[in-house]
Write a structure and sequence with these properties.
The chain is mostly helical and about 240 residues long. It has two domains: about 15-75, no CATH class; about 80-235, no CATH class. It has eight helices and no strands. Helix 5 runs antiparallel to helix 6 and helix 6 (about 160-185) runs antiparallel to helix 8 (about 215-235). It starts with 18 loop residues before the first helix and ends with a helix.
């Protein structure tokens, strides 16, 4: 059985990108092929800046120029990808911070169906004490959110990420002390009665331990706090 042969002669291997640009100037490849290689797909954005009448005395010089241009192109692509990754992390952090500030400002005041019990909360605490508690608990996250929003289109400065790390570590320690130390280890189980009065009618999916059953809204908040800390830890690597 005879071997299939194409109707047109195959081009030598040197005629393919990106060597074809230089080879064509030396007469080694058809100029039409080199022109296709020079133009490339529009998305490539790879410009070797070669003049129309390019002459070179040594192929080594051309290879060096090609290599330099290619490495510069890769560097630009990688740098853009890193910036996009960091911007994605910052966008996620902005969303998480917005959720925190909204929760801390309104969860004791805005009825959210069975997710909270505003009447029970306001019956358990004087109104003035609730106002002070709302302002104090939301102050640090609100400052962090404002700083993050003002720097949303650029890489965050070191002081901002350090401030956010301090704020959310502080917040997470408070969440552990208020809920999870008692839930897992029986720390200050005297809170169980007040928690039952304030959150007993809200939605909860965790089983009760030591008289405490964290409701779904607080579990969501604490999960968002952990996610914020993880993203802050990953931010320098983005």
């Amino acid at each position: 059985m005879g071997q299939y042969r194409p109707s047109t002669p195959a081009l030598p291997s040197v005629c393919f990108a990106p060597e074809a640009v230089i080879r064509s100037r030396l007469g080694r490849c058809p100029r039409a092929v080199a022109a296709d290689v020079r133009s490339g797909p529009p998305s490539a954005n790879f410009n070797l800046n070669l003049p129309e009448h390019f002459e070179i005395g040594s192929i080594d010089q051309g290879v060096i120029e090609l290599t330099s241009g290619f490495l510069a192109h890769l560097s630009a692509l990688y740098g853009g990808g890193a910036r996009m990754s960091r911007l994605s992390v910052q966008t996620a952090l902005l969303l998480l911070q917005s959720f925190h500030v909204f929760f801390l400002l309104f969860h004791d005041w805005l009825p959210m169906g069975r997710l909270n019990d505003v009447r029970a909360m306001q019956a358990a605490h004087p109104r003035r004490l609730l106002i002070v508690g709302t302002l104090v608990s939301s102050l640090l996250p609100s400052i962090g959110l404002l700083g993050s929003f003002r720097n949303r289109d650029e890489a965050w400065p070191v002081w901002l990420t350090a401030y956010l790390a301090f704020t959310y570590v502080f917040l997470f320690v408070g969440e552990i002390e208020a809920w999870w130390a008692g839930y897992f280890f029986g720390y200050r189980i005297d809170r169980a009665i007040s928690y039952r009065d304030m959150y007993g009618k809200t939605v909860a999916f965790l089983p009760e331990r030591n008289g405490i059953r964290p409701n779904a809204l607080h579990v969501t908040l604490h999960t968002a706090t952990v996610a914020t800390l993880v993203l802050l830890a990953l931010w320098p690597l983005a």
